[in-house]
Amino acid sequence: TTVVRMLLIVPALIILLRPDNDNVNTISKIKQLACIPLINTFLHMALAAVGWLFRYEAYLLALDITVVAILLYYYYRQLTRSQRHYSLLEKAIGAFLLLFAFAPLPLRAAGAFHNLPLAARNIYEQQYQMGRFLQTSYQHTTVAANDVGAVSYLSDNRILDLWGLGNNVVAAGKLHGKYSPQFLQQFTGQEHVKIAVVYDTWFDSTLLQQWRKVASWKIANNVICGGDEVFFYAVDPSEATSLYNKLAAYKPLLPPGVVVTYYPFQL
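RE: above sequence
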C-alpha cells in the first residue's frame, strides 16, 4: 500500500540527506521532524487498521507526504550543490524511484473521489435516517447499536455500543474473552435497553433470536456503511408494537432508494 511505501521512502531520504557546514542544525531538526510521522506510521501499521475508503490512514498520508516533500526539497538542494555529474542512468533510476513512491497517490485519489458521492449518499440514506428516526420517534430512550456515530450525534438517546468501540463494559468483555450472545443479552437487560438498531451479520443469531425483529431498511450500492441492511429490534418485547407503529409512521420520510421490510408475524 501507499502507507507501506512511505515506511521505505522516509528512512531512505533521512539516510541520504547530509548536512553542509552551514545547515547542520537545520538538517538535524528536519531529520528529527521526519522521525515523528515515521514512528507514528509504523505504530499505526502494527496496531491499527487501514482501508475502507482510506478513512483510517488518511491523516498518516497527509503527514508523510508533507515530510517527504520537505526532505526532497533539501535533498534536491544537496544534489544541486554537489560537484558530481550524475549520469543519465542514475537520473533515470532516481526518477523511477520517485514514480514508484508516488504512483499510487493519483489512483488512490481518483478512487476516493469516485466513491465519495456514493458514500455520502449511503450515509444519508442509512446512518442519517437512523439518527433522525431515533430523535423524532424516541426521546431519552436506551438504545443498543453497533454503528453509533450518527445516532449518537443526531439523537438525545442513551446509545449503548454493542461492538465495544463506545462502551468500556463491552470492550472489556471482548478483551477478557467474555464477549458472547449471553454476555450481550445480560448487558442489554441490565441497561434496560428498549430497542436495538444493528446489522444482523455482525452478531450471532442466538442473540438476535431473543429479540423481536420488527423491520429493516436496505440501501443500494453500499460502499461505506457497515452493512447495506440495518435491522430494528424490540429488545424489550413490550416495545415491539410501538416500534412497528413508529417505523411505519416514519417510512414516508425515508429517501426513495431505501427498501423497507416489516416482520409483523414476529410481533
